[in-house]
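The following block was generated as part of the benchmark described in Methods. Ligand: zinc ion.
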Amino acid sequence: MTSLLRAAAAAAAVLIAACQANPSPPPSEAGASKAAPVLASEDAKDIHSYARPLEARVTHVALDLAVDFAAKSIGGTATLDIERKPDAKEIVLDSRGLRIAAVADQAGKPLQWKMGANDANLGEPVTISLGPDTRKLAIRYQSAAEGGALQWLTPQQTAGKRHPYLFSQGQSIDNRSWIPTQDSPGVRQSWEATIRVPAPLTAVMSAAAVGEPDTDGANRVFKFRMANPVASYLIAIAVGDLQFRSLGARSGVWTEPSMLDAAARELADTEKMIDAAEKLYGPYRWGRYDMIVLPPSFPFGGMENPMMTFLTPTFLAGDKSLVSLIAHELAHSWSGNLATNATWADFWLNEGMTTYAERRIVEELYGPKVAAQQVALGIDAQNKAVTEAGGPAAPDSRLHIDLAGRHPDDGLTDIAYEKGAAFLRMVEAAVGRERFDAYMRSWFDRHAFQPVTSALFLADLRKNLVKGDEALEARLKLDEWVYRPGIPDNAVAADLKAFAAVDAAVAAFSGGGAPDAAQWNAWNTDERLRLLNKLPRKLPAARMAELDRAFSLSTAGNMEVRFAWLELAVASRFDPAVPALEQFLTTQGRRKFVRPLLTALAEDAGWGRPIAARVYPTARPLYHPMVTRELDELKLGAAPGS
Ligand code: BES
Ligand code: ZN
């Protein structure tokens, strides 16, 4: 193509995009892949992938897939562009239960391949023999029946009750169950997809929509393109009876029709959040920021899939009181999606930085008091996580964690989130906000679309922030924060004033006083959560009943409040809350809510375990495989084979 023709084509593409109801930005750079190099340092070696990307790696993934609800399977072709050392004889991909029919090269010539033995955590390696000039791999396959990233919902499990629903949750290592690629966060690829779904359903993915959907017989065909190189765990899909509502110039929300109004109302501050995040960390580099509010079985509060954050419906409180979740997922557009942990040992780089940034965005929108309260709740969560890790000397209270022989989700604790955030708050306090903000912004500029490690971050901090200032270096205790257990003594203390009124109310109630409904009604959600979390854990039934009556806790419309109440109810063996508990456990499947409750019940042989054993078989079909994988270990008797 001549450059003139190319310019005309690009202009036409922009025009076409501008005409769509839900315009997607033109790809930032068309043409050849610009996948980031894989880091070669020892600390960037990923023990949770079979791939050997320094020998042969994937740089682009093109999916051509059909969604089959009857078979609960996605199938079709994945065509991978690869880069390889000239003498590489094979390439290794990750899989989990994939059924591969054939592998061919760019000319359609069949390639030898073999599937290795299954490992419970990692799945199976797929080793493909390379010819001297193999550049592309076309893999014909079907996704695993169950147990991976995909959750297939019956119509009954959706809000509308009329259509089935499918969504994926790839982080950390489950995308290998439906995409045959190198499933390591240190290996980035651009990607595109053509997705066939039964009419009248709609597919969305974590990428720009290309054109309007086509119709092909009984199917609708959707096309997507992610021009930026991303980690494989960030490829995501949802299919259902979905509608879109714009929230502003570059954001909008998808959800089932009956939830659209509530979702749009709750998310009204999104554009302001994007502006606040850009002010802190530089331009938002992904074009649009859309969100999808999923059915209640979505296992997380949110998931930062690029251009399409996935959200639980349990954050819909009616009063925007839980939208720090959006600040969090949005902040991942920098920490996590631009600069990505190269391995799950450095998960804190994703989540700790994001938790820090989340509160900065909250401060910008809702003021310093609200932000200080969320920081204080975070410090409590951090300290609880240290205890749960085994105390301040326990190896799992380190930021850079050793996951050898374990699943990466073992590192999914508030050590990564809250100790990570506390580390950055300490650095901010030591150098001043202005200097630290400028540094963080420059960090994202230097590492945009790159994998990063703890060692790389510390070296970058030293080079660009500490700059040889020995007194500062000594004050920061950088290595202690990242590589040693516990919380170093230079952590910034919580602002005691943040919850002064609440803590006084806790003391009054603990001393025998009556609950004060007027005060409760005047409080915000964080204040209510603080009260519930600070109350003595084993309260007599009469005192629990007083609380429930005064604050209507068993029917609280705010799911975080209801969860905090039910946790207290389980700890206090409060029988009257059991119906509310059963209802809560059988109507949503958010890991953060169901795991602690079912675990606490299961551990209480005398009271809770029979309740858990009764509820779990009913609840289990609603839960995502990544949640049942953990909960089945409680041996409550509902899992196949238990
Ligand atoms: N990326 C995480 C979710 C995740 C982490 C999924 C690890 C799988 C493995 C997401 O950004 C997150 O942190 N979600 C939180 C939100 C919260 C801290 C505001 C959640 O779901 O609770
Ligand atoms: Zn996160």
